[in-house]
Amino acid sequence: AQTVTQSQPEMSVQEAETVTLSCTYDTSESDYYLFWYKQPPSRQMILVIRQEAYKQQNATENRFSVNFQKAAKSFSLKISDSQLGDAAMYFCAYRSAMRGFGNEKLTFGTGTRLTIIP
Amino acid sequence: SAVISQKPSRDICQRGTSLTIQCQVDSQVTMMFWYRQQPGQSLTLIATANQGSEATYESGFVIDKFPISRPNLTFSTLTVSNMSPEDSSIYLCSVVRVGTDTQYFGPGTRLTVL
Q1: CA distance B38 to chain A (A)
Q2: To 5 degrees, how large is the angle CA B8–CA A36–CA A38?
Q3: Torsions phi, psi of A25, nearest 5?
Q4: Average per-residue pLDDT for chain B
C-alpha cells in the first residue's frame, strides 16, 4: 500500500517570502500522480498543483511550484511571494495511474498548517 | 474544474439518528468518492460511489453504517446511520471529470453529533 508522509505539522513564513513544504511517499509503482491540495478555514479542498510521475519537468502554477524527485520519492511544494490568503492546511496526495479496482482513490498525508506572518 | 455542491453544509444531530448528505455536480463525471475528515485529521476515503450499483467500501467502513447511492452520473448521497459523537466530522464528496485524472472536492458537510 502507498503511504504519504508530511513531516512538518506546522510552518510559518513572512508575507512576501518563500516557503517550502515537504512531502515524501512510498510506492512500488512507476506511474502515478501527485497532488497538493489546500484547505483554508472554509474547509473547501482546493487543488493547488498536480504532477505526473512520468514527466521529468516540475509542475508550476503561478507562485506555486514543486520539486519532484522521483528516485528519492520526494514531492515538495514551494510557495513564492507568500500572501495572507495562502494561510491554510496543505495536504500532499498520491494517486495510482492504474485504473480500476480502487486505484483511482487518493492517499493523503497528514497535512502541514501554514501560517503567514504579516 | 467541476462545480460541486453539497447539502447540507452543516448540521447538528442527536445520537441515534441518521443524516443524508447530497452531492450534486454540474457535469457528468466518471467517478465520485466520499471522504471523512475527523477533527484535526487528514482525509480518509469511505467509499467509491458507483453509478447504478453498490458502492465500493474501504476497510473499516460498512454499508449498514454508511449507505451510499448514485442513481446517475451527476448525483450521489451518503447517509450516516445511527450516529454517535464519534461520527462528528467533515464529510466531503469528490469527483473525477470525464477525460481527467484529477479529483475535485465539494465544499464539505460539517456534522456534529450530540
Answers
A1: 12
A2: 40
A3: -145, 165
A4: 93
- The per-residue pLDDT for range A18-40, each reduced to its tens digit, is 999 999 999 999 899 999 999 99
Q: Is residue B85 reached through a cis peptide bond, with omega within 30 degrees of 0 on the bond before it?
A: no
Q: Write down the mean pLDDT value for chain A.
A: 93
Count of beta carbons in the 10 Å neighbourhood of residue A24:
17
In the numeric block, which cell numbers belong to residue B3?
462545480
CB B91 within 8 A of CB B111: yes
- The per-residue pLDDT for range A58-70, each reduced to its tens digit, is 999 999 999 999 9
Whether residue B89 lies within 8 A of chain A, CB to CB, comes out as no
User: Picking from A48-52, A97-101, B19-23, which range would have the lowest pLDDT averaged per residue?
Assistant: A97-101
Q: Residue A106 class from Cβ within 10 Å (0-12 exposed, 13-18 middle, 19+ buried)? A: buried
Say yes or no for a CB contact (<8 Å) between B102 and A44. no
| Alpha helices, H only, chain B | none
A50: distance to nearest CA of chain B, Å?
Answer: 8
Instruction: Name the closest residue on chain A to residue B10, using Cα atoms.
Output: A43
Q: Is B59 on the interface with A (CB under 8 A)?
A: no
Can you tell me the mean pLDDT for B66-80?
Answer: 95
The stretch B74-86 carries a mean pLDDT of 96
Taking a C-beta distance cutoff of 8 angstroms, is the pair B113, B19 a contact? no
Q: How close does chain A come to B41, measured CA to CA in Å?
A: 7
C-alpha cell recorded at residue B92: 466531503
Tell if the CB–CB gap between A110 and B33 is shorter than 8 Å: no
